[in-house]
Amino acid sequence: IRDLVNETEIYSRVFTDPPTNLSDEIAMRSRVEVIDGFGEFSERSLIKMVRKILSGTASIEFEQDQTTVEVAAVYPESRIQGRENLENFLIPYNQSTIPLKHFFDFQEVTGISGFASENGEMIYRLYARMAPGTPAARRSEFEQRIRDEIDAKITVPAGYSMVFDNPQEEMEQAIRSLFIALAGSVVLVYLLLAFQFNSLIIPLVILVTVPLGFIGVVFSLFLFKSSLSLNSMLGTIMLAGIVVNNAIIMIDFYLKLGPNYNRKIDALVETAGIRFTPIVITMLTTVFGMLPIAIGLGEGSNIIQPLGIAVSGGLLISTLFTLFMVPSILSLFN
Predict the structure, then answer these.
(1) β-sheet bridge partners, residue 16
(2) End-to-end CA distance of the chain, in Å?
(3) One GO CC term of this entry (predicted)?
(4) pTM of this structure
(5) pLDDT tens digits for 290-330?
(6) CATH second-level architecture of 169-330?
């Protein structure tokens, strides 16, 4: 299957875990009839002894001068390296010794270098990576092409099975959950604003700034060549609670200032002019605070960089739109 996937040239790299390379091995088969003749030994105890010969004893700890020291007994490589040394390794028995080959038949074989076990079954995982720059949306298309190739050219033997895993399934589920959380946060913000302003219309005007923030998120992620990830989604949820502040400041001031003016347009222009500086300064303090994260300064900061990009870019674009959109919408309502 690995060679077939390589031949299709759909993916840039194909590999298995564990590797399927062949290696020379020494196989040991127990001589049960011989072992049964020795009362002090059993097949299990001899296998345990062989493991200690090859890998050493379990380490033990003791304290010396307030320092913890680990000690394990290990045989020199020269004593156990190679088939002949292992066959003639002497095991103590009744004040004498018996070579290991008396209890086991040794045979040199060629086998796979390793295998993995899951739920008691031997498994191999085949990984294929798409070429850099390939859109993630084509993953399903590539998978279907590989399925068709395998069905046409390979017959899976009886007792074997093949499953295609979706490595992004957990990520997609997490993003769906974040979308639900985002919708919930918008609803909670609307209810809070409805109680605060004692109106069902004014909160809708304020929430116009939320989709304006989303425009900024998409634009900033595209500008920084970032992607929509869990961290950028978390930044978007944070943004939904931040961008409404500017509209709240403007509308609250307008409601207090409006009765002093005969024309509504005059009140809106005056409100926008007076609240312009506080809104811009509030926005800039937040953007500059998130800027080191958005730029990716420091080791490991690239992990949360999408969060900083989403908050900074979304807030900047939303504020610019808010200064014009909110007064325009308010001019349509009494």
Answers:
(1) 126
(2) 70
(3) plasma membrane
(4) 0.53
(5) 888 888 777 666 778 888 888 888 888 888 888 888 888 88
(6) Up-down Bundle (1.20)
Dist CA 98 CA 91 (whole Å): 5
Contact between residue 134 and residue 28 where contact means Cβ atoms under 8 Å apart: no
Q: How far is Cα 234 from Cα 182, in angstroms, rounded to an integer?
A: 9
Helix intervals (H) in the chain:
2-8, 32-35, 43-55, 77-80, 83-87, 139-153, 169-197, 202-207, 209-223, 230-242, 244-257, 264-295, 305-330
Please give the mean pLDDT across all residues of the chain. 83
Backbone conformation region of residue 18, classed left if phi is above 0, alpha if psi is from -120 to 50, else beta: beta
- CATH for 2-153? 3.30.2090.10
pLDDT one-digit tens code per residue, 190-243: 898 898 888 888 888 888 888 888 888 888 888 888 777 778 888 888 887 788
Bond before 18 cis per omega within 30 degrees: yes
Residue partners of 17: CB distance under 8 A and separation at least 6: 116, 124, 125, 127
At 153, which amino acid appears?
K
- Nearest 5°: the CA angle 25, 155, 123 is 45
Sequence ranges of the domains in the chain: 2-153, 169-330
